[in-house]
Structures are given as C-alpha cells and as structure tokens.
Recover the amino acids of this structure.
C-alpha cells in the first residue's frame, strides 16, 4: 500500500468531533467543519476503509450539509491503485 492521501483532500479525524466519547455541541461541530472545509459545496468523505468516514458524513448531515457522499473504498482502494495520483505532506 502506498503512503499518502487523496490529492486535494483535507484531514478531519472523527475523534475531533467528540469529547469524552460523546458528540461535541452542534455549534462547535459546525465551527470545526467550517474551519476544515471552508465554503465547499460538495463533500466526499473517506478514511482507511470507508467505515469511520460514515461518522463524518452523519455529523455533516446534522450540520446541514446535503451534497455529500462516502467513498466506501477509501484509502484501501485508492492507495492500492498505481493509476491513481497520491499526495504527500500536509496538502
């Protein structure tokens, strides 16, 4: 498996939306999403295998985002393909 991430993706670990095992206040979650994604109108969530990306998609829905999807293959599919580009570093 190659190391890196999907180009132009942004990192938001779902644990950043929790406090002591429970969801943070919705206003705080909205602020976190705003900081990470800015004014993006279409969101596609991914993770290692597509499982924890669902948590982010659920929170995004609760925050009012509607044009979103979960890439169920996520990094395990993307990173395994030599034909797909990868990015390294923070961007």
């Amino acid at each position: 498996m190659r190391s890196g991430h999907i180009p132009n993706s942004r990192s938001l670990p779902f644990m950043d939306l929790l406090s002591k095992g429970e969801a943070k206040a919705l206003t705080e979650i909205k602020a976190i999403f705003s900081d990470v994604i800015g004014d993006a109108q279409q969101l596609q969530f991914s993770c290692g295998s597509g499982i924890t990306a669902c948590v982010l998609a659920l929170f995004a829905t609760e925050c009012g985002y509607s044009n979103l999807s979960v890439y169920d293959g996520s990094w395990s599919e993307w990173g395994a393909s030599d034909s797909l580009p990868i990015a390294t570093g923070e961007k």
